[in-house]
């Protein structure tokens, strides 16, 4: 068994870094796009800073539309877009396109939920002292929601890790692709167990780090 594990270490190491690469790119894109989208979903709601039913409903429908599609179907459906953006439909870079599209609305909803947990009295106090809407977003909403946003990033990263494993089905690379090619197709339980243990360790590390950062930034 140990010999089998040692033999697969080079391939496992490559798959590990491919997975980190996919998660890092898609998480970065989800932060850049999903954070503003989550803020828009919150501040355009009824009775808030930029109340706008049209924008709220349009953004909400778009987010729900993408979230309602199972990732494996979304992965296949976005192959033409992936080809257009990356020039290929296989490999970790190509898989990052679908992962990013799936992560953006997921993270946006988590951000919106974090913002809704803020005491409305804090927002009302900021309005009462004459703070502009942009000042409220920058100086009140984001600092108050920081622990929730950090937890949202953690949950999104862990979800992306699972999605990246599914990306291996269409040649996306990473640990999922490794487990399918070397473990499932070859009926090698050692490889399957090794990859499962590795994924468990990665998830635990992500959660511990995320919880630690969330506690560190929580000033309440």
Task: Please provide a written account of the structure.
- With 220 residues, this protein is mostly helical.
- The chain has one domain: MetI-like (MetI-like fold).
- 82% of the residues lie in helices and 0% in strands.
- It is built from 9 helices and no strands.
- The protein is elongated, with a radius of gyration of 20 Å.
- It starts with a helix and ends with a helix.
- The model has no long low-confidence stretch (mean pLDDT 87).
Protein traits:
cell membrane, single chain, elongated, 220 residues, mainly alpha, MetI-like fold, Methionine ABC transporter permease
Produce the secondary structure layout.
Blueprint: H1 2-43, H2 53-67, H3 71-77, H4 79-86, H5 92-116, H6 120-128, H7 133-167, H8 174-184, H9 189-217
Question: What general outline do the C-alpha atoms trace?
Answer: elongated
The SSE order reads HHHHHHHHH
Q: Got a strand count?
A: 0
| Total DSSP helices | 9
Distance between the termini: 51 Å
Write out the CATH superfamily name. Answer: MetI-like
Weakly predicted, low-confidence segments: none
The pLDDT mean sits at: 87
CATH architectural type: Orthogonal Bundle
Helix % is over 70%
By CATH reckoning, the class would read Mainly Alpha
- Tell me the fraction of residues in β-strands, as a range: under 5%
Q: Fill in the CATH topology.
A: MetI-like fold
Radius of gyration (Å): 20 Å
Number of domains: 1
Structural class: mainly alpha
Largest sheet: none
GO biological process, one term: D-methionine transmembrane transport
InterPro entries: AA_ABC_Transporter_Permease (IPR051322), MetI-like (IPR000515), MetI-like_sf (IPR035906)
Family: Belongs to the binding-protein-dependent transport system permease family. CysTW subfamily.
Keywords: Cell membrane, Membrane, Transmembrane, Transmembrane helix, Transport
């Amino acid at each position: 068994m140990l010999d089998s594990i040692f033999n697969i270490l080079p391939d496992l190491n490559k798959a590990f870094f491919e997975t980190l690469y996919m998660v890092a790119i898609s998480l970065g894109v989800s932060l850049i796009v999903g954070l503003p989208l989550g803020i828009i979903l919150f501040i355009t709601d009824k009775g808030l800073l930029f109340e706008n039913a049209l924008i709220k409903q349009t953004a909400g429908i778009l987010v729900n539309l993408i979230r309602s599609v199972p990732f494996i179907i979304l992965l296949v459906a976005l192959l033409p877009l992936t080809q257009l953006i990356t020039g290929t439909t296989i490999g970790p870079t190509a898989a990052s396109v679908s992962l990013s599209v799936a992560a953006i609305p997921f993270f946006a909803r988590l951000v919106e939920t974090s913002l809704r947990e803020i005491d409305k009295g804090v927002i009302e106090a900021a309005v009462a002292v004459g703070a502009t809407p942009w000042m409220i977003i920058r100086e009140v909403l984001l600092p108050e929601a920081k622990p929730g946003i950090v937890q949202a990033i953690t949950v999104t990263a862990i979800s992306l890790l699972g999605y990246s494993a599914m990306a291996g089905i269409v040649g996306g690379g990473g640990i999922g692709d490794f487990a399918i090619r070397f473990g499932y197709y070859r009926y090698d339980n050692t490889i399957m167990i090794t990859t499962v243990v590795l994924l468990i360790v990665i998830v635990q590390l992500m959660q511990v780090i995320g919880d630690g950062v969330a506690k560190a930034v929580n000033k309440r």
